[in-house]
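In practice, a research group might receive sequence data for several interacting partners and want a quick structural hypothesis before committing to experiments. The following worked case mirrors that situation: the sequences arrive first, and a predicted assembly follows.
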Amino acid sequence: MLICKRLCYKVEEGCDLTGTFSFLKFVVTKYCKVRVELVKGKLALKLCCPNSSLVKEVKARMNLVECLKWARCIPFPGYPTPVKLTYFKEKGLCIGIDERGSPVCLPIRWLERHALIVGSTGSGKSTTAYTIFSELPFPKLLLDWHGEHEWSNVVDCVNLNHLEKLSDIEILDSFASSLNLSDAQYYILMKVLQLLRVQRRSFGIRDIAFYVKSLEETSRWMRESKYALLRKLEMLISRKKCSFTITDLPNSLEGGLVLNLSDYTEYGKRFVANVIISYLFAQAKNNPTKAFIFVEEAHNIIPKGNEISVADKVFMEGRKYGLHLVAITQSPKAMSPNAMKNTALKIVHALREVEDAKYVAESIGYPELWKEFISLEVGEAILSFRKPIRVFISSKKRNSSSPLAQRSTHNKEVSHTPLP
Ligand SMILES: Nc1ncnc2c1ncn2[C@@H]1O[C@H](COP(=O)(O)OP(=O)(O)OP(=O)(O)O)[C@@H](O)[C@H]1O
Ligand SMILES: [Mg+2]
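A structural hypothesis for the assembly, expressed as tokens:
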């Protein structure tokens, strides 16, 4: 027989319930049935456990949360039937609440069809991305352009000495996607790779630069293209010693990996991101296993005008090999239209530029929504898979120094919504 008890609390303003909700979600649900309701600063728990000592234990743990004050369980004003929060396993990944306070959850199959998180600067894109990333129970990689995300496993450079693990086409595409190569530069690289394959068992970016340098200059165009290419390659050569190599990647994704790209030059960031996506795509083709790649500032690696970029290929074919992208950008119009076309799930934060708002609204098939996009607040988004829903995203703390505490009162409520 189950012992059931209802526990109610008043939630003080600014109260961080992340730990409490994790405890309820991951620990208590192992033993008891739990129903959580959080409405307008009130929190109600309905617990049904196999014995009374478990109920007492949960009660004692809840009493330790200083910003929760015990309250009598009366129906919440304005909510005659309190909303139910359902659980992660049944509903997918719950990222926030809708206007009625009901949880908004993303079934994993939505994310598998690739996602786009878009919004003007400061609208809450990275926070949303991190909320999804941290909850996702699959191998995952976050390409962190600005080094703003904290995680248990962060690396800040990748050793590119083993490029031989990639096919020539993958290497060439990674260079072409990052360095705007001319046809002549592309040709030179192709020739150099052919030589390296014959003469070296393993090679990296320095070897490629060395081989380009030693090429015979048989004509003027050859000389000019060679030096232009060398200048670009120089920008990719890192002075840092990195112990983490691309071959370490697949195993490191298990518990999630954040790759901090902030120490690289812009070209370097693009190149590393492209090489990594290429490598993981090649691995996925050989051995399909579900994995997710989150790409911050995605317009840099899926740019408009380069519709054969590495990431474009993943958008088009990744799903069948279990590789899924979550692209994050503030410049939707600077991205390849394929990114819009091939991301079934869109999470649209505030777009302050009318042109951007209209472009995104049209792309998702609801042109009239552009006005809503303009007026969204920080942390608010319109989620569109089939039909659009307004969602207040729960924020996960992503950096110890991040000013997540400095939010508007409106967003405070949102951020304390549980991820049930
Ligand atoms: N869901 C949320 N709830 C509460 N506050 C939020 C939420 N999302 C974002 N914020 C606040 O807004 C600030 C900016 O958020 P964030 O860095 O995620 O925006 P961004 O769109 O990624 O910005 P940028 O384009 O500069 O990278 C955060 O520091 C945080 O204080
Ligand atoms: Mg950001």
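Before designing any experiment, note the following. The radius of gyration is 25 Å. Residues 3-84 form a domain with the Alpha-Beta Plaits fold (CATH 3.30.70).
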